[in-house]
Each structure stands twice: as structure tokens, then as C-alpha cells.
Amino acid sequence: MAPDETLEVLAMLRRGRLAIDACESGRTTFLSHVGAVPKLVPGPWIGHRDLLRAMALANLHPQQRASLARAVLVEYGHTFGVGRLELTAHPSGLPLGGSSVWLRSRTSEVTCLYTWGLGPSPTAVACDWLVLRARPGWALDKPFKTLSATGLSTLFELAGKVLVVVETAVSARLVADLVQGQLDVTAHARFAPYVESSQPDAPLVLWPADALDSSALARFEFGTAIPLELGESETRAVSEWAEARANVTVASACEPNRLTRKGLERFWRACGRPKILVRGEPSWTAEGAAWLRRLGASVHVEPTSTQLGLF
């Protein structure tokens, strides 16, 4: 691949007026998924209509709520502009208005499809570059076992209450949808607005990785803790938390209803076999990039998320 083209794609994502899934001073933020932005700073926001409606359910402070009220609502398939970029939002296949975003600079013909996460049936769009966040379900040669309602029920029957530690509200919603009608769920206040029928004494507890020291969590007794597609440092934190408690087993798992390798291969081909920019955990990106290259893809790797402030 041409080095200049790689730099051109990175420039589209890192410079100018637009920031994707990051809030930066002087830039407009495109919100792709609920919780994809690590720190939701008030400012000019853009998002799909369903995503912004979902965010209205969250416990936002007044400045954030004011930004939400002024946010620009976009529909899937409608092109809009920010600075020198043309953009179009497309369904990512994930709940709560999750979106991929297609980008093209007004001064270039190079196109890019940015994805934060992909469900089982994302909309494919022809592009020159595809931006992927490595996830265990497709990146690892031997991925963790995918979470199932039957497996969770069995764990509860054998060992008691189950803690599922998740990254975002999207992950919490995927788990809640998975067990709906089979297991009751209780969730951290951050996720509760997105989980139907939350029950205080439910056998399944959904919790964010950054709130394990919460006093609200300490009142529960667990038999199993499941880090759900968490990175190395977060998974280690769950293990340390479990070691400090008695008889808690830790077992990592993949999220339900996410794109697998077969699905990602079909998606990549449907997008016109674009070049791929892979980011994320080094161990995941290494295996994922090697597999993508075996498919015949041209791959550029950004192995650590800390290198990509915009992501």
C-alpha cells in the first residue's frame, strides 16, 4: 500500500474539525455508539437519531444534557459535511443506534469506513479503507467461548450469582437481550436505563470494569465473574478483585450477537475488499492482522489504543 495514502487516511481521522468517538476542544464529535466515547465532554455533538434518544436516558450532568439538546441528529444513508469531510452514517448492527461512518475528504478521492463495533448484520459500504477495532470474537485464532443464556443459567445453578463485567452500555444491552425471558438481570446505574426489567436480587449482575470498587457491588456474593471482551489490564483487575473475595471463579467470554470471522470476511468482501486499519490490544491486533492478511487484505496495524486519541 502507498505510505502517503495511509497517512491521508490517518489525517482524515485525526485532524480537522471532526473527531470520532472522542471529545476534543475545537472539534465536532461524531458519536458512533453509546459509551464509545471514554469521556463525554460537553461540546458540538453529532449522532444517529436513535443513539441520541438512547443517550437522553442516561444520567447526564446539566452541561452534557445541554450539548445533547443541541446535537445534530442524522439518519442512516444521508450524507452530511463537517469541515472538509463528507460523511454518511450506516447501521453497525449493534443496538441503541450504533453507527459506522463513511468518510471522504473534499480534496481527495480516498474513502474510509470507520467502525467501532459490528453486529451480526452490519451495512456494508464500498470504501478504500476499513477501520476495525480488534475484538476477540474475530481477531483471535482461538477466541473465548461466546456467552450464552444456557451457560449463564448453568453457572448460576452450580455456583450462585454471576457477575458479567462489560465495557459499555452496548455490551450490557447485548447481554440483557440474550437472557431476556430466561434470567433476571440487575445492572449498574450507568447501564440500568438500557436494561429492561432490572431486578435488585437477580442472578445476573451487569457491571462496568471501572467500578469494581463500588460499595453497591460489594453487597453481592458471586460464584463466577466473567470479563466480557475486556483488554488485558481490565481482565487483570477483575482477577484481582475476584482473588480478594472467596470462591469466585473468573472466566473470559466473547459477547453475543457480534461479528465472527466468517461474518467479517463477508463484510470485508461486500465493502469491496478495502485496505484495513486495525487498532486495539496488541495480542488481538497481531492475530487479527495475520488472519486478515491470509485473506489477501492489505493491513496497517496500530497496536495500542493509547496511540489513537481520536478512537
Layout of strands and helices, then pairs:
Blueprint: H1 3-14, E1 18-20, E2 28-31, E3 45-48, H2 49-55, H3 62-70, E4 72-74, E5 79-82, E6 85-91, E7 99-105, E8 111-114, E9 129-133, H4 136-139, H5 149-159, E10 162-166, H6 169-179, E11 185-187, E12 204-208, H7 215-218, E13 224-227, H8 232-243, E14 249-250, H9 261-270, E15 275-279, H10 282-295, E16 299-302
Parallel strand pairs: 1-2, 2-3, 3-4, 8-9, 9-15, 10-12, 10-13, 11-12, 13-14, 15-16
Antiparallel strand pairs: 5-6, 6-7, 7-8
Describe the structure.
- The chain is of the alpha/beta class and 311 residues long.
- 30% of the residues lie in helices and 22% in strands.
- The protein contains ten helices and 16 strands.
- It has a seven-stranded mixed β-sheet, with helices on both faces. A five-stranded parallel β-sheet has the order 11-12-10-13-14, with helices on both faces. A four-stranded parallel β-sheet has the order 1-2-3-4.
- The longest helix is centred in the last third of the chain and has 14 residues, at 282-295.
Brief synopsis:
With 311 residues, this protein is α/β, with parallel strands linked by helices. It is built from 10 helices and 16 strands. The two termini are 22 Å apart.
- Average per-residue pLDDT, rounded, comes to 92
Helical proportion, percent range: 25-40%
Proportion of residues in β-strands? 15-25%
Low-confidence stretches: 305-311
Amino- and carboxy-terminal Cα gap: 22 Å
**Helix-strand pattern, N to C?**
HEEEHHEEEEEEHHEHEEHEHEHEHE
